[in-house]
Amino acid sequence: MDLHGIRQTDGFTCGPTVAMVASATLDPAYLGTIADPAAEQHRIHRAANVLWPRKLGTTPWGVTAVINRHAAALDTRYRWRFLRDDLADVIAAVESDWPVPLLVGRIVPRHWVLIVGHADGVLSCYNPGPGRVVEVPVADLRARQLSGVGFPRPFAVVLPAA
To answer: Which domain of life is it from (predicted)?
Structure first.
């Protein structure tokens, strides 16, 4: 899926947009059904947030559930976890072409981005706010001092189960 130009439709749909892009990357049949990305973001937002207020964004378990609907065809299940210093599983997943959602914020989690690549210690992260891919050094992720993704602190990742 071409990530350039796909933007979240409002201040609350970063999670659904990341889940949509990750799911479309994993499931080409799903990609073919997305006629209106904005409408699909809102459909995903309603489905992922049955009990959670949409104005609070999308939970890690909501993003995970959406992606698992599409990863199941690949005999893979995603899970979420809080970010740790050991990023080996995150890097291995991305290097194996598995997209990895990353929840970031300042004091509280507030924004989702999607890690889509890794080369030479630098992660390629799709940021659904501006709808573009930015480069983030792995060292910055480990130091919890991000730039270019909207917020400086990483909180959690959603990645394929080992």
So the answer is: Bacteria
**What are the angstrom distances between the C-alpha of 130 and each of 5, 17, 39, 45, 150?**
8, 12, 18, 19, 10
Rounded CA separation 81/150 (Å): 21
Reported as a single tens digit per residue, the pLDDT across 62-98 is 999 999 999 988 899 999 999 988 999 999 999 999 9
Which residue ranges make up each domain of the chain?
A: 14-160
Burial zone of 123 (CB within 10 Å; 0-12 exposed, 13-18 middle, 19+ buried): buried
Q: Name the pLDDT band for 51 (thresholds 50, 70, 90).
A: confident
- The answer to whether 111 and 150 have CB atoms below 8 angstroms apart is yes
Asked if 115 and 22 count as a contact pair (C-beta separation under 8 A), the reply is: no
As a whole number of angstroms, the distance between CA 110 and CA 95 comes to: 26
Kindly report, residue by residue over 96-120, the tens digit of the pLDDT: 999 999 999 999 999 999 999 999 9
How many secondary structure helices (H) and strands (E) does the chain include? 6, 6
